[in-house]
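Bench notes, afternoon.
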Amino acid sequence: MRILTVNAGSSSLKISLVCDGTSIATYDDLDAAAADGPPDAVGHRVVHGGRHTAPVLVDDAVRAQLGELTELAPLHQPPALRAMDRTRAAWPRVPQVACFDTAFHTTMPQAASTYALPRRIRDLGIRVYGFHGLSHAWASARAAEQVPGARRVLVAHLGAGASLCAVLDGRSVDTTMGFTPVDGLVMSTRSGALDPGAVAWLAANTTDDLSEILERQGGLLGLCGTADMREVIARADAGDPDARLALDVWWHRLAGLCGAMAAALGGLDVVALTGGIGEHNAAVHAGLTERLAWLGTGATVPVLVVPAREDLQIAAEAVQLLGW
């Protein structure tokens, strides 16, 4: 069966045609994909699935429900839904499957997914959802295959967006993104974790659009004026103090939260690096191994580079849901 996978991220659009677990074509846009005729099904990466614990067939009710979650993932949900609307209109008889980044993290224990807030607030849906689940699921499974017997896997998805996931026996038990994809690590334009008291103070004492600052003006961009990690490293190596600070802050947060994920797992058996920065930046690979040497990385704990293949994860989930 030919599954067209549509991965609309915060900074990219990836479209792949998958058949029997292999990508047989990629496309720059949906027009190019449509030129090859209708697929047997379309699988969409949807960042926020709310309380969905597994992929679902998309109908009007599901589409409306996903639209209501836009404010929780404003960089990701709109492009995914626009792509979904286009493919549904183009191929109304082709099954459309929504695969959720949040679904992988629904296995987290309550202790990891619950905020210390009154029940009336928690009942509004305020909880740790976690994101990058499709990538974490793929990378952790590949790492476990490459290191037989590995039960405790730390996945570091490092790209424009970034998160860590602690995976025990194939199940997410902790992650660094929370209620929204802003939480956790320092990212290209997202601030990562910030004292909620600071957010409350800013809301009371400034007229700034806080969502704009936290989502689009923070992170590496806010620290040194560029969101490109390659440029940050080059400038830091050349002695630029702002770039050096940005890199140091990025590393400080990453190393600390890796330690937290290792604590959630009770140790590590393997570390899997994925995402644009994780896969392609040798300095990051070496730096992470060095900073986590106290956990045994580089010696007893292997550090693997696992190419992100969300397209294959989406296709596999679509096939399973459709029973093909």
